[in-house]
Design goal:
Residues 5-238 form the ABC transporter domain. This protein has 2 domains: 3-232, Rossmann fold, CATH 3.40.50; 247-306. It contains 11 helices and 14 strands. It has helices at 40-47, 70-76, 92-98, 112-124, 140-153, 170-186, 198-201, 221-227, 229-232, 252-265, 296-306; strands at 3-11, 15-24, 29-33, 55-60, 63-64, 77-80, 158-162, 190-194, 207-212, 215-220, 247-249, 274-278, 281-286, 289-293. Strand 7 (158-162), helix 6 (170-186) and strand 8 form a beta-alpha-beta unit. The termini are far apart.
């Protein structure tokens, strides 16, 4: 395995994550998820040996990160943090080109092969029209993609990205996620990235690392999702103290939308009602009689008349 964590405690003075045993290999895409504050960024910084582990070992390409210099780590791992300092007086092309300078002294000029590769990265990220723009004039989304481009130009076998789809619209999120998966599969790179938008990102990942209650669960994406019911079934938030919900039998999305609609619009006890979603319609049982509604407006009218 290219990346291995063995009995590792992650944190500062006290562990945020205990006893981590996880691994990933080249050619795999891993998705790191968990609530804010559980230790996702701390885990990333520990892999980079920016924060020492409290216990256990982390190895990259068969070597303990404790034994690697900063340059050696950079040669093995490219990284994109969600908050990065924007260099002054740089264009987008300049920023992407910086990824090449882990291989050369700063005073070297890039060769034609390097320049060609940089242009290809800019094209793949759909940034060609902005390549000569100063970084300060880029949108947050295009700036984020430019930093990703710098990591790609580094040509390291492993890439870590902390929230790479932040600030991106749906189309650009998919562009980035497709590109990361293509890189993993065609160039045999290990990609590990964190995301709050994990419902979209899961479609592109081979493995999930899920952090909860000081523990990290790792495995094939679908195994982790099936094994953690809270990930697939969103919480139905209750904020209306006068609202008592009805019985609802429906797929997750329809159930969530009905619950939201009823709670916002009715401060009353609806526990005597029974809703079932079938063939695109809501079947509603009221006092042993059945009604059928095709929209939330029809449901609202029915409840208003009933009560």
């Amino acid at each position: 395995m290219f990346l291995e964590l063995k009995n590792t405690d992650i944190g500062y003075k006290t562990p945020l994550i205990k006893g981590v045993n996880a691994s990933m290999d080249l050619g795999e895409v891993g998705l790191l998820i968990g609530n804010n504050g559980v230790g996702k960024t701390t885990l990333i910084k520990s892999i980079l040996h920016q924060i020492p582990v409290l216990n256990g070992d982390i190895s990259v390409n068969g070597k303990n990160v404790k034994t690697l210099s900063n340059k050696e780590i950079a040669e093995q791992i490219a990284v994109v943090f969600s908050k990065a300092q924007v260099p002054a007086n740089y264009t987008l092309r300049d920023l992407v080109s910086l990824g090449k300078y882990i291989h050369y002294p700063y005073y070297f000029e890039l060769n034609e092969e390097d320049k060609s590769e940089i242009e290809e990265i800019i094209i793949d990220l759909n940034l060609s029209q902005y390549k000569d723009f100063p970084l300060q004039k880029l949108s947050d989304g295009n700036l984020q993609k430019a930093f990703i481009g710098r990591a790609l130009a580094q040509n390291s076998p492993m890439i870590i990205l902390d929230e790479p789809t932040t600030h991106l619209d749906e189309e650009n999120k998919i562009i980035i996620l497709k590109l990361l998966r293509t890189l993993a599969k065609t160039q045999n790179k290990l990609i590990l990235f964190s995301s709050h938008d994990w419902r979209l990102a899961k479609e592109f990942s081979d493995k999930i690392w899920f952090i909860k209650d000081l523990q990290l669960s790792s495995g094939i994406t679908e195994d982790i999702l099936i094994g953690h019911d809270e990930l697939l079934n969103p919480k139905l938030f209750h904020f209306n103290e006068d609202f008592v919900p009805p019985k609802i039998s429906a797929p997750v999305l329809q159930k969530e939308m009905l619950y939201s609609f009823l709670q916002k619009n009715f401060k009353k006890n609806l526990s005597s009602l029974n809703f079932e979603f079938k063939d695109g319609f809501w079947e509603i049982w009221i006092d042993n009689s059945q009604r059928k509604c095709g929209s939330f407006k029809e449901i609202a009218d029915l409840i208003e008349n009933y009560h």
